[in-house]
Amino acid sequence: MTRILKIGGSILTDKSRDMAARPDEIRRAAEEIASRPQDLVLVHGAGSFGHIPARRFGLPEKFSPEGLMTTHDCVARLNEMVLQALGEAGVACLPVHPLSCLTLREGRIESFQLGPIKEMLKRGIMPVLHGDVAMDASRGSGIVSGDQLVSYLGKALFAEVVAVGCNVKGVLLFGQPLPLVRRSDLPAIESSLGGSGGVDVTGGMKGKLLELLDLADCGISSLIFDAGREGNIRRALLGEKVGTRVEGSA
Question: What is the 3-state secondary structure (H, E, C) of the chain?
Fold first, then answer.
């Protein structure tokens, strides 16, 4: 059973300040993940390590080799912190940098070399991916969000559990989390979908939900939950009801 977990950059970093990690939160998340590491692909957001430098260089609209290199270097540093915390928690893990294994076209994943990820899972190693810059066949510069990675990997790996942790309780309507969202609900709630705190170049909550609705259209349900609340990551990995369930048509 393959499971995919995303921890948002808003949990691991302060998105309002450039390259501002939250070491205690990184450590807590790693310890909760370590309780259920089997057959798990981890994706983490770039947070202030990615969004701020990307905005500084005008990515993805502007093609900038310097911007690609600088932004990737920044997000790789956050990835190293996550890997170190997981290792200290006893998890066998390896980095998978999207810049080196996928290409985009018009901002969407066109090709993705999944062989290394499958081999890691086969041998009990947790692949750890992250939001990253990428080469785009039509635009030159591209950005692949952690949310797009989750949606793509969920389909490609036939994931049975998909959970996306962020800094709110789920998809909120009038301040309260909805227990369930389907595509048919989108017109009624779209105007209430907030953006992201701090700098974000990947679409905030609306972008997250659209990716997961695409996944739901393929028959794979998912969960959006508050990963900032202690114990929720563990609960989500166990399949418990936390946050908002995103499902296909009834």
Answer: CCEEEEECHHHHECCCCCCCECHHHHHHHHHHHCCCCCCEEEEECCHHHCHHHHHHCCCCCCCCHHHHHHHHHHHHHHHHHHHHHHHHCCCCEEECCHHHHEEEECCEEEEECCHHHHHHHHCCCEEEEECEEEEECCCEEEEECHHHHHHHHHHHCCCCEEEEEECCCCCEECCEECCEECHHHHHHHHHHCCCCCCCCCCCHHHHHHHHHHHHHHCCCCEEEEECCCCCHHHHHHCCCCCCEEECCCC
